[in-house]
């Protein structure tokens, strides 16, 4: 496996790549969608909702928490997760900026 040369890229490019990597699993998308619908969630609810093992859910939650898109609070023996609104806006803006760079090829000379 090659060494990544992330220092060759901007902080924004590295951040967008890390977010895209975390979003690149359907279980994580399902978790995000569930959190957006429910506005908060106890970890155990995700297990019954998605039908995945607790350990698998925990791994996916960790990946989403690592990029800051979700946050959790401990309530007794369970953890309640929700979308981190500040980071959600940052991620939304990252994707919007790159998508807005696209210009319709019909309006340009393009291959």
Structure description:
The protein is α+β, with helices and mostly antiparallel strands and 111 residues long. The protein is 57% helix and 13% strand. The protein has a 3-stranded antiparallel β-sheet. A hairpin with a 2-residue loop joins strand 2 and strand 3. The longest helix is centred in the C-terminal third of the chain and has 16 residues.
Map the helices and strands.
Elements: H1 11-23, H2 26-38, E1 41-42, H3 43-50, H4 54-66, E2 70-75, E3 78-83, H5 85-100
Antiparallel strand pairs: 1-3, 2-3
Short description:
By secondary structure, this protein is α+β, with helices and mostly antiparallel strands. 57% of the residues lie in helices and 13% in strands. It contains 5 helices and 3 strands.
Count of DSSP E strands? 3
What is the CA-based Rg, rounded?
17 Å
Uncertain stretches of 5 or more adjacent residues: none
Largest sheet: 3 strands, antiparallel
Q: Based on CA inertia axes, which overall geometry fits?
A: elongated
Counting copies of identical and different chains, the oligomeric state is single chain
Quickly count the helices: 5
**Termini gap:** 33 Å
Share of residues in helices:
55-70%
**What series of H and E elements makes up the topology?**
HHEHHEEH
Structural class: alpha+beta
In what order do the strands lie side by side in the largest sheet? 1-3-2
Mean pLDDT: 88
Q: Strand fraction band?
A: 5-15%
């Amino acid at each position: 496996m090659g060494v990544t040369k992330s220092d060759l890229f901007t902080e924004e490019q590295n951040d967008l790549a890390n977010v895209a990597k975390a979003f690149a699993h359907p279980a994580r998308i399902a978790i995000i969608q569930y959190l957006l619908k429910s506005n908060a969630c106890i970890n155990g609810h995700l297990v019954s909702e998605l039908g995945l093992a607790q350990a698998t859910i925990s791994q996916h939650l960790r990946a989403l928490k690592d990029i800051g898109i979700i946050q959790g609070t401990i309530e007794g023996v369970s953890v309640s997760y929700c979308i981190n609104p500040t980071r959600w806006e940052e991620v939304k803006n990252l994707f919007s900026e790159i998508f807005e760079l696209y210009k319709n090829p019909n309006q340009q000379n393009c291959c």
